[in-house]
Design brief:
The protein is built from twelve helices and 16 strands. By secondary structure, the chain is an alpha+beta fold. It has two domains: about 100 residues, OB fold (Dihydrolipoamide Acetyltransferase, E2P); about 290 residues, Bira Bifunctional Protein, Domain 2 (BirA Bifunctional Protein, domain 2), CATH 3.30.930. The chain binds adenosine-5'-triphosphate and manganese (II) ion.
């Protein structure tokens, strides 16, 4: 094997062809086609690019009769050849092979990712192989571009990327049901005199959980360093069987000192626009594919979001609109209810036809840490709602007054003891501050038009389901 030949990714070959140069291609056969002229055409994918590279295999290769018949969809191959101007109209460049080696065979009789039309549901049984399809490799590349765009946005604005813990000692972060983390013997856990499990004998000498949000810890750093953000895995043990909930998902949580709710909402809006712009710019082939195969309106929707300011109104105004709409909802609307996704989607899809930022929710349906308004009934919360999804971002200005926060903690029946550190942030140089959480998979759903959140994360975890 001549070592001097450069390996180039399919992306490199197709986006910056070097006609006449020798090249090595490594990947998986997507399709094989024999032409009447006695040639074989291979479409080879390596996942780097939406398109495959066409490899032309001439019949005079020494192993043409022995090895080429063994190549099937899914086989891995190594090709040595030359980049040449393509004869067909589909792409500018193709690879004229002079050596084709089968690296790993793939038996078409049992390969689950054949050429037949496969549904997203079917592919959920093959989370290890679905990245070999156009849809799932496109989603993985979009996730990658979005991840980097998240960092770009915050880094350009002076935010510090903060790594908050995954195992947390906070037993009420206010955002959802938690998964317990323990090394106790579940068959015979140590018990206290009153019969309760004795977590003082557990690994951390106390009960701990997987985090539902890095916000509280992010506040500590915002109240020291100004502007921070987290981007990491988040866990919620809620038994939600919907197309928008996972038990393990990724969340982006900026937190800003000296910021109020208006500034928070503006950052959220600018942030979403930045992310959509990045995908439209860097993933044009993927977006065209999602438009053709997943959601015909997807590119228009994203462009409309880029071009128009988000609609802002209060929860109370939204409830009025919903009540007067004449629409029959599954859950009746009354002031004080937690809006359901049918209500959120009605507002963003039917009433405003744009993303909506709802603010000032009733305190009873929001977490303890949100800043109480002078009316004593509502808090400085905000949710960003987008078409097709409903809530994509939840945020708030935080309660920065120690006595009000303490009163809210007590009012909600929580223990203040474990939250002393959090109250300290209000005791020692308290500042107004605000932040929000963007669900990364909801963002990917919004951007791609994919209907089910299980299909936009590589290995989904939902109640009753964990495969790999
Ligand atoms: P929802 O009401 O939709 O269940 P939430 O109000 O519980 O969401 P927040 O605590 O505000 O969610 O979390 C911030 C963001 O994280 C949400 O706006 C959403 O984008 C995302 N998110 C929340 N729960 C989940 C989940 N189970 N799976 C995926 N994303 C989630
Ligand atoms: Mn929320």
């Amino acid at each position: 094997m001549p070592e001097s030949i450069m390996t180039r990714s399919v992306r490199e070959i197709l986006t910056s062809p070097s006609i006449g140069s020798d090249v090595r291609v490594q990947g998986w056969v997507r399709t094989k086609r024999e032409s009447k002229a006695g040639l074989t055409f291979l479409e080879v994918s390596d996942g780097s690019y939406f398109q495959n590279v066409q490899v032309v295999v001439p019949a005079d290769l020494p192993n043409y009769a022995t090895e080429i018949p063994k190549l099937h969809t899914g086989s891995s191959v190594m090709v040595l050849g030359k980049e040449v101007q393509s004869q067909g109209g589909k792409q500018a460049v193709e690879v004229q092979a002079r050596e084709v080696s089968l690296i790993g065979a793939c038996d078409p009789a049992i390969y689950p990712i054949g050429k037949q039309k496969m549904t997203h549901e079917y592919l959920r049984d093959f989370t290890h192989l679905r990245p070999r399809t156009n849809t799932f490799s496109a989603i993985a590349r979009v996730r990658n571009v979005l991840s980097m765009a998240i960092h770009d946005f915050f880094q350009q604005r002076g935010f510090i990327w903060l790594h908050t813990p995954i195992i947390t000692g906070n037993d009420a972060e206010g955002a959802g049901q938690m998964f317990r983390v323990t090394t106790l013997d579940l068959d015979k856990p140590p018990r206290k005199e009153d019969g309760q499990v004795d977590f003082t004998q557990d690994f951390f000498a106390s009960g701990v959980n997987l985090t539902v949000s890095g916000q509280l810890e992010a506040e500590a750093y915002a109240c020291s360093m100004g502007k921070v953000y987290t981007f990491g895995p988040t866990f919620r043990a809620e038994n939600s069987h919907t197309s928008r909930h996972l038990a393990e998902f990724w969340m982006v949580e900026p937190e800003m000192a000296f910021a109020d709710l208006e500034e928070n909402a503006q950052v959220a809006e600018d942030f979403l626009r930045h992310l959509l712009g990045a995908v439209l710019e860097k993933c044009p082939l993927e977006m065209e594919f999602f438009k053709q195969r997943v959601e015909p309106a997807i590119i228009d929707t994203l462009r409309a979001v880029l071009d128009n300011p988000f609609k802002r109104l209060t929860y109370t105004e939204a409830v009025d609109i919903l009540k007067k709409s004449g629409e029959t909802f599954k859950y009746a609307v009354e002031w004080g209810i937690d809006l359901q996704s049918e209500h959120e989607r009605y507002l963003t899809e039917k009433v405003f036809k744009s993303p909506v930022i709802l603010t000032d929710y009733p305190k009873g349906i929001k977490a303890f840490y949100m800043k109480l308004n002078p009316d004593g009934k509502t808090v400085r919360a905000m949710d960003v709602l987008v078409p097709g999804i409903g809530e994509i971002i939840g945020g708030a200005q935080r309660e920065d007054r120690e006595e009000v926060l303490l009163a809210r903690i007590k009012e909600m029946g929580m223990h203040e003891g474990p939250l002393q550190w959090y109250l300290d942030l209000r005791r020692f140089g308290s500042v107004p501050h605000a932040g929000f959480g963007l669900g990364f998979e909801r963002l990917v759903q919004f951007v791609t038009g994919m209907g089910n959140i299980r299909d936009v994360i590589p290995f989904p975890r939902t109640p009753g389901h964990i495969r790999i």
